[in-house]
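Summary of Year 1 activities. Much of the first year was spent building the evaluation harness for sequence design. The harness presents a backbone, in tokenized form, and records the residue chosen at every position. We chose the following record to illustrate the format because it has been used consistently in internal testing since the harness was completed.
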């Protein structure tokens, strides 16, 4: 889940998005319902009944708690739902949809796009795009790559399917921008002469795909989710320490930018826990004390950015939304 803040003396954003008017702050809250899919594709718990049960908690109890919190503060968020979660927990995901939240793409089993062939990526995108279109009655507009691991081909696939924004990369941390894709760089190879790898980054091509930045430092999962193989804290970080980081990040952006996005990434596995719900409530109340701050969806942020910022000349543009639905299943 993502919270966007917009700071407005106009507007700032959080990935629940929050937006500020006059000098603006927008918050957007992005919520990733990884649930069981996260353990299948990324966290290393596919052989653990206990870890799978924690995924079930996320899709049921955690999701219900987050929905209640959003209702309490009248917040609409963007929920990125893997196809596995949509098919495994249809009633819980219908509650998200029926509460008026935006739903976006997040793979099927939280698989790593960078580990797959182009054809595998295309098949998964086609299936999940059709799933969400049928579930919501309209095509999705945004996507998040599982683990924020965007593949070399991923941007073109999103353009082919008419996606309007992505939330997987980090060229900035509080401003939307148009995605550039196809950058290349030389890896260091100590077995070869340095002249073979002392090369600069080569920039790729511009696109009309809006990038709403991903930011590991305002993501709940790395510091606060217990994962047996995690190399640092194993998920045992005091939420008040995380709260300090998020509050300081917001306070800096509010002071330094007339307009910014604050894209918080949340997971019901983590943010559905009592101690983290209380952290969110304290932070939301802090954010809302500031003039011009509002919570908006990522779709809103993308649309607003495009209205005020034309894409670069010659940029590769998204296909017409829904045009792929007329093609046969892959």
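For this record, the design step produced the sequence shown next.
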């Amino acid at each position: 889940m993502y919270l966007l803040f917009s700071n407005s003396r106009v507007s700032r954003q959080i990935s629940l998005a929050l937006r500020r008017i006059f000098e603006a702050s927008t918050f957007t809250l992005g919520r990733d319902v990884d649930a069981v899919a996260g353990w299948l594709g990324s966290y290393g718990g596919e052989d653990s009944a206990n870890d799978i049960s924690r995924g079930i908690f996320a899709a049921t109890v955690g999701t219900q708690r987050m929905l209640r919190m959003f209702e309490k503060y009248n917040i609409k968020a963007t929920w990125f739902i893997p196809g596995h979660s949509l098919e495994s927990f249809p009633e819980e995901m219908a509650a998200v949809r029926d509460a008026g939240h935006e739903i976006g793409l997040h793979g099927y089993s939280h698989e790593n796009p960078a580990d797959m062939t182009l054809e595998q990526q295309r098949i998964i995108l086609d299936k999940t795009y059709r799933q969400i279109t049928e579930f919501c009655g309209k095509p999705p507009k945004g996507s998040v790559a599982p683990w924020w691991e965007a593949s070399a081909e991923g941007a073109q696939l999103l353009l082919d399917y008419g996606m309007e924004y992505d939330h997987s990369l980090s060229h900035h941390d509080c401003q939307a921008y148009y995605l550039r894709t196809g950058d290349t760089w030389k890896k260091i190879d100590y077995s070869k002469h340095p002249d073979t790898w002392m090369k600069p980054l080569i920039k790729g091509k511009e696109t009309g795909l809006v990038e709403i930045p991903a930011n590991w430092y305002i993501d709940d999962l790395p510091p606060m989710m217990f994962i047996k193989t995690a190399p640092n804290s194993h998920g045992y970080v005091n939420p008040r320490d995380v709260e300090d980081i998020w509050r300081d990040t917001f306070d800096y952006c509010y002071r330094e930018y007339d307009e910014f996005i604050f894209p918080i990434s949340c997971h019901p596995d983590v943010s559905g826990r009592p101690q983290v719900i209380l952290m969110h409530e304290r932070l939301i109340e802090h954010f809302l004390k500031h003039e011009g701050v509002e919570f908006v969806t990522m779709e809103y942020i993308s649309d607003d950015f495009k209205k005020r910022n034309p894409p670069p000349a010659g940029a590769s543009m998204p296909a017409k939304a829904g045009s792929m639905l007329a093609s046969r299943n892959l």
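The first strand starts at residue 2 and ends at 6. Quantitative recovery figures across the full test set are reported in Table 2.
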